[in-house]
Amino acid sequence: MNTVIFDKIKFIIVNSKFTVIDKKYLLLISETLSNSLDNDRPIKLKGKPIALTSINKLKILQHREIKQVVRSVGKTFKNKSDLLGELEDCLKFKGEMTLSTIYLNQYLHSDNKTPIVVFWNDTTDKEIFKRLKLNIKKMWSIKCYSDNNDNYFNIKLFDITGVTNKLLYSSKIGYHYKNGRMLNLIETHGLICEKNHNIIYNYDPNIADNIIIKCIFNYIIRDMGPIKLHKLCNISSN
């Protein structure tokens, strides 16, 4: 791999835990991040949930408000035990709050490299980053679906930075019998990698998902090759 690319940019794998409250605002509960070239465990930013309004105002929920959200989510999403668990953890949280724009900006912009943020099959993460005003110039998203609805699936990488998504990469990865055109994260990973990455899913599914997204993304950039990757990143060779 051309190391000049990684002297100037870094790929940050992001998956957010969130919910929608009263159809008015996004509630960011936690963020999990990792550098695609870093073999260390992803980091998880935790603290009190942040309400993100449509007019880009941020509000940190207080203890009483979190309890109200827990009751509301419990009634509305009875099968979302992982979401309820995260919210209940927020009620018990007593450590240093890392779920903040300060910590996110430090992680993204602490060096001289330009971050390209990579999500899994999601535009809500993009909306969260926009509302947090994190000054990200490139956002990419991975998806996996069957173009012809014939159970042969293609893994795709899109640039979702602008209003219109732009296809950057597409490659057929194999056959998987399923009713539906989309593969989920675990199904996609199963077609391209036999490793389990020593993941204990019952411990923290957000960390596990981030590790798997990183594996899939690294598969894509290896298959893509350094020349095409260099062009997609718009990096000057000087």
Describe the protein's architecture and organization:
It is built from eight helices and nine strands. The two termini are about 20 Å apart. α2 packs antiparallel against α3 (about 80-90). It is an alpha+beta fold and about 240 residues long. It is globular, with a radius of gyration of 18 Å. The chain has helices at about 5-10, 65-75, 80-90, 100-110, 125-130, 185-190, 205-225, 225-235, and strands at about 10-20, 25-35, 45, 50-55, 60, 115-120, 140-145, 150-160, 165-175. The longest helix has 20 residues, at about 205-225. It has one domain (about 1-235). Strands 1, 2, 3, 4, 5, 6, 7, 8 and 9 form a nine-stranded mixed sheet that branches.
Average pLDDT rating: 84
Query: Helical segment tally?
Result: 8
Distance between the termini: 18 Å
Q: Could you estimate the helical fraction of the residues in percent?
A: 25-40%
Indicate the overall shape.
Answer: globular
Give the helix/strand class: alpha+beta
Tell me about the biggest sheet?
A: 9 strands, mixed
Rg (CA only):
18 Å
The total beta strand count reads 9
Percent range for β-strand residues? 25-35%
Order of helices and strands: HEEEEEHHHEHEEEHHH
Quick recap:
By secondary structure, the protein is α+β, with helices and mostly antiparallel strands. The protein contains eight helices and nine strands.
Provide key terms for this protein.
single chain; 238 residues; alpha+beta; 9 strands
